[in-house]
Amino acid sequence: MGEIKVRIKKLRDELELHNYNYYVLSAPVISDREFDEKMKALQILEEQYPEYADPHSPTQRVGSDLSKEFVQVAHRYPMLSLSNTYSEGEIRDFYERTVRLLNEPFEIVAELKYDGTSISLIYEDGKLQRAITRGDGTRGDDVTANIRTIHSIPLKLRGNGYPQLFEIRGEVLLPWAEFDRINKEREEQEEPLFANPRNAASGTLKQQNPAIVASRKLDAYFYYLLGEELPEETHYGNLSLARDWGFKVPDVVQKFDTLEGVFNYIDYWNVERKNLPVATDGIVLKVNDLRQQRNLGFTAKSPRWAIAYKFQAEQAVTRLNTVSFQVGRTGTVTPVANLEPVLLAGTVVKRASLHNADIIAGLDLHYGDMVYVEKGGEIIPKIVGVEVESRPAAANEKVCFIQNCPECETPLVRLEGEAAYYCPNESGCPPQIKGRIEHFVTRRAMNINIGPETVEDLYEAGFVKNVADLYTLKVQDLLTMERWAEKSAQNLMDSLRESLTVPYERVLYALGIRYVGETIAKRLASAFHSIDLLAEASFEALTEVDEIGDRIAESVINYFSNDLNREMVSRLKEYGLQMAVSEELLANRSEKLKGVTIVISGTFSKYSRDEYKNMIEQHGGKNSGSVSGKTDYILAGDNMGPAKLEKAAKLGVKIIGEEEFLNMLSE
Ligand code: IVH
Question: Which residues pair with 404 in a beta bridge?
Fold first, then answer.
């Protein structure tokens, strides 16, 4: 094979891998900049040597986000991307090229580059008709139902003067605060965390269930209009009008007629962007005049009238000292790099995520290496590369993934198709055992008044080896331990006794069966009224239940096929925990609200929100998080949000108070 051909193949293979890491695993191992540089190198080679063209080359595709379940529709205008630059020099090149091509004065509009997922909205007669994701640029998913849940997107436009038919493009974003809130919640529910707001936004938009979308407060910023009869002949003019029609068009958009102004804008936002509520990753420059834009036209992939300048992700170089392998409570082993402390984006970084074995191998890490640490949109900094030049000739030992559990020595296993290794020794591996006990006692589970430190102490002292042991604790035992006195011991006893009244569905959640979170526990409890029925349920019976898929069904079966689990459950039953839906609850169950969807809003005086939610479900109704065409009633307390009120009025949804709701049930 010729040298060129080898180079092309190598670049294609590398790019394919990085593409996979990025889009499929959401765990890139190189920076966007390095990726773009490699892509550029490949593009140049392919242009120079057209004889090696290949329709499957990474240059021939735009990352697709098509998914099976949504209806796919063609874009009226393709959704192109922007060419990326990383230096002032490249911006100068863009500017000078534009001067040359236009040969007349022009204005540049500068805006922020929002780091979310792009969306195209079609409006007809002032009404939102359709929302389509980028897809492969030519066809995308129809996600209108999900987009409708975003409050900042107008369903009907304000004022008038908008074209009869037009398209507006923008970015769907998950604000930082909401991102943090959701991740905290996911952590509590043992669900994998979102790596950054971009992944969270695109993942949310692809949810099949708009109610989930509604519960995550997405936002959308708009930056581009398309249509045959746009009112203004400038980009800036149309954006300003779009703002009047009700779109969120950021007011940081600014016009310039010199490059100097543009550079000042970049310098300013490079710092100031850290104070914005959403993630940004660069600046976009666009020629303002639409006639000039048409003259400049497009290349196959991007407009010649626009360019993106990407901010330098904050990086630091430091030494990799050691790697620790941590075992989580579901047994997953996570590698963590221990670094020589280094200042990065205002905080001292000592540890960085290494994600999984593939990533470690891909980086070719050796102990003592000088590594590049980057803080992108991610919460935890990550290692993105190794400074190979500074590695001594007699290199230190290579970092290898461990083969045995660092806590219990059990050989690790890797499930087919999954990146993570985990320790299968559920019943004997200390962090897994302690993790399950910690989960069992949490407020939303059994609400037992102890924290992780106490769990650790009780475990170390040998008093509690599984959750059932909690109920055999005696005051005398506790008093033999440090920091325990008569009063605190008695408090724990009281708390344990109280937990005997915790309803069955919460006990089920507390058991910590993999994938059985609060909602699933409720579904299971109402389909199988006792733990004995659940333990005997077949795969078919389980998957027949609403929201229970193969994965959850398998996990439940797996749980009860373990004798240790069965034994523990039967001990818990013996100690008096609720292992069946209470008679009272069964007696009070009805179908009065069958087929009725109710949204709860505001604050209440007679019962709590959770209690109302339970009542709705107990009577066969459905509780939903957001008002839509399917909502039958809004159960409104005090301080109901004005947005919900307005929406209810618009959709003609009936609003009822506590009294009225309770009457409905007692009728
Ligand atoms: S203009 C024809 N403006 O960046 C180009 N895009 O690589 C139309 N983006 O797909 C896009 N902020 O998802 C434009 N102010 C902005 C943007 C922006 C973020 C995203 C968008 C686009 C990608 C371009």
Answer: 411
